Amino acid sequence: MASNGKNTVLAGAVWGQGENAGRLRGGLFRLRPGATEWEAVAGGLPENVEVRAITLHPNDSKTLFIGTQDGPYRSTDGGEQWEKLDFPEQGAVIWSIAIHPTRPDIMYAGAAPVALYRSADGGDSWHHIPQAKSPGHCEREGFDTRVIGVTFNPAQPDEVYMGIEVGGVLQSTDGGESWTDLSAPLIELAQLPHLQNNVGGRHCGHCEGMLDTHAVAISSAAPGSAFLGVRMGIFRTDDGGSSWYDTDVGQFSPLTYCRALIVSPHDPDVFYAALSEAAVSTAGSLYRSNDAAKTWERIDHGVEAQSTVVGLAAHPTDPASLYSVTRAGKVIGTADNGASWQDLPLPEGVHDVYAVACY
């Protein structure tokens, strides 16, 4: 396996779901700079830990957070040792952790079934936000809808979007005290024949694909707008979610299933998207936009995902480094702004991978 070069890379996996439950290898895995082999991270973590979210502290490179099947954990030494945080719900499955862009002591953790928690002391303690609840569009027995991401508007940090897989998107304009469901216009769009989709047998019918939120991205380069990555592509609102429209990413990519969508922390005009065939597939790709998601170009060359790309991570201080992870257990990354790519397969048996980070 090729070395990952100058970056430390983390990837998080679960122990299989559905018919694969317990048959696959989960956990937190690390590839150090210059190393050629992944190592399982164990310090302070449960033996059977499942990791669905990895978040870096914006002001402290040694402080990391992960979301597990038993609440959030924190490391203050760069990932060597981990501590379980004081969380009000035992056994809460955490799918997302977000840190306020201007007040980093304020954090949010999103769970499955849908629940949102907030910390005001940097993760030391948390409380449940009962107002942030699932609108109940697409519940299905055997599949917990989940808070897949929490995103802040950089121009107005108390404007917060909460993406729900599979359940639409909510918005708060008061820092999470109250929430509005923005899904009605997405459901209306699903009346269009090319946006109708239901592969999960949910009661929401043909609008399931439009409510299958995977990511929300907001950039200071597009003030007043938010971008939504869903099963059916990438959609945009310019009016706070009162209406959404298709950005037509399909004119640039034959694959339109969007699992991850992020804004570069170094240039607000640069967006990255993970576009694949389906939730479980053998085709995935990486795209970059240099004009705030107006046009896109494929950037992963010389490597093959051979699976759905489920996560993206931009390096917090190095604009040349970007890493992605596939559901089937492969990390694909670049440390030279896409001039070359590294194929970094995780250890044998690691599958159902959902999270990646680099620093």
Looking at this protein, list some descriptive labels.
359 residues, mainly beta, 28 strands, four-stranded antiparallel β-sheet, globular, 2% helix, 1 helix
Q: Count of DSSP helices? A: 1
Alpha-carbon distance between the two ends? 20 Å
Anisotropy-based shape: globular
Q: State mean pLDDT (0 to 100 scale).
A: 94
Percent range for helical residues?
Answer: under 10%
Q: Pairing-aware structural class of the strands and helices?
A: mainly beta
The biggest beta sheet, please? 4 strands, antiparallel
Give the strand line-up of the largest sheet.
Answer: 3-2-1-28
Number of strands: 28
Approximately how much beta-strand content do the residues carry?
Answer: 35-45%
Order of helices and strands: EEEEEEEEEEEEEEEHEEEEEEEEEEEEE
- Stretches with pLDDT under 50, minimum 5 residues: none
- Rg over CA atoms, rounded to whole Å, is 19 Å
